Amino acid sequence: MVIVLAIFAAVPLANFIATGTSRTLFLSRSNDADWFATMAEGPLQSGDIANLRELAVRYHQLYNTPVFVVDVDRRVIATSRSGVVVAEPDLKTALDSTLAGRLPTEPPALWPWRTGEMVVARPVVNNGRVLGAAVLRVPTEHARDDVQRGLLLLLGGLLISVGAVVIGIVRPVTRWVLRPLNDLDNATHQVTRGALDTRVSTDGRAPELRRLGDSFNSMALSLHQARQREREFVADASHQLRTPLTSARIHIEGLSRLSPTARFALSDIDRLGRIVQRLSRLAGSDRPGDAEGSEEPLDLAQAVKERLVGWKAVYAADDLELIIGEMVPGGVAPELEVDDILDVLLDNASKYGAPPVEVSVLRDGTEVVLAVRDHGLGLGSRDLKKVGERFWRSAHHREMPGTGLGLAIVRSEAARVGGRVVARPPIGGGLVIEVRVPLIDDYEL
């Protein structure tokens, strides 16, 4: 009976060794294939493949692994060795899946009696369009030797102490069963915190748990790609706006010497340019901390009062009441874009709220608080938690014009100086949006 139990225990362990070694090799070479796919994006579009071919040759010499790149029509563009036949069954299968944009299939277990190379292929993608594929033909001799040594050690352990294996298998199996669940739980928490590149390993696990892990990885990949597409959209939009803004500024700058109105237009063009820069930062395309400014603190109350001069006229033209509340002086970081923050908050209050709209600047401990309150319908508890998310809009306001980026930009600007945005329902109804930024202690009133 003990021998039978040992045999039954040895089968999954042997499969663990073979499949684990296979997946480890596959994942390690997948990273290299992803790198080649990234490097091949430019050459496939420009046609300049000399550097790509040199990289493939060097990689082949270093790792003894042939590599080649094909375009979407399966023509070999760059290769580390001649004689590549893409019609070979293993290559054809890999290219069919890769060029169709499907996820790679699980590699077969590397048993010692099997021969042949492992094919690792990754698509070359630009803006969601498949341009070709990078393919590695990975030798498996060393990996099969490792599997053979592992199987021999396993067999030797069973022959030396069958009883010890049976007794000692209870704890490892328990860990083996619970570890994937713990890993999946930890990975889920990482994704909820925004780490969308988190993945779970599926090496050597039960088929049900392996499928669960694969499903989680596919979900995380989809979320990561969606976030990446969102950032690319914002970055591309801001990039496309820069050229016409620069051209418009040049033309209006020439008119500004003749017309005071043109000078106001020039100021608005400059503000649009700053908005485009913040869109780039919001998309993650610009590094934080690049903004330049004076080292003197900014009096938030004074900056708000100056900006409110123009907004009082705007509100009066629309028969809306704008109340200037308490204005307590307080020094904040000079790079804080007060005008743009106040523009977003007052524009939202006039469109989505109801008069009167009250603006105040207060101190709260170590923070200076810019608060804008309206007397509209306000937001529910669920919606209050989502204020400041990119492209989010309340269900009551989705039919109204807007992009859903205004408060996201405000939150990004506040965070850039160590601040935060708080939305809360005030007593009496409506909505209060507070921009809380750190108080500079040595600011002199």
UniProtKB/TrEMBL annotation:
Record keyword Cytoplasm present: no
Bilayer-spanning residue ranges: 150-170
Top-level taxonomic group: Bacteria
PROSITE patterns with a match to the protein in the record: HAMP, HIS_KIN
Domain Histidine kinase: 236-441
Species annotation: Kribbella orskensis
Required co-factors: Mn(2+); Mg(2+)
GO terms assigned for molecular function: kinase activity
Residue ranges of domain HAMP in the record: 175-228
Catalytic reaction list: ATP + protein L-histidine = ADP + protein N-phospho-L-histidine
The entry's keywords: ATP-binding, Cell membrane, Hydrolase, Kinase, Magnesium, Manganese, Membrane, Nucleotide-binding, Phosphoprotein, Protein phosphatase, Stress response, Transferase, Transmembrane, Transmembrane helix, Two-component regulatory system, Virulence
InterPro entries, A to Z: 2C_sensor_his_kinase, HAMP_dom, HATPase_C_sf, HATPase_dom, His_kinase_dom, HisK_dim/P_dom, HisK_dim/P_sf, Sig_transdc_His_kin-like_C
Protein's UniProt name: Signal transduction histidine-protein kinase/phosphatase MprB
Entry's localization field: Cell membrane
Record-linked PANTHER family: SENSOR PROTEIN CREC
EC number: 2.7.13.3
Topology with respect to the bilayer: Multi-pass membrane protein
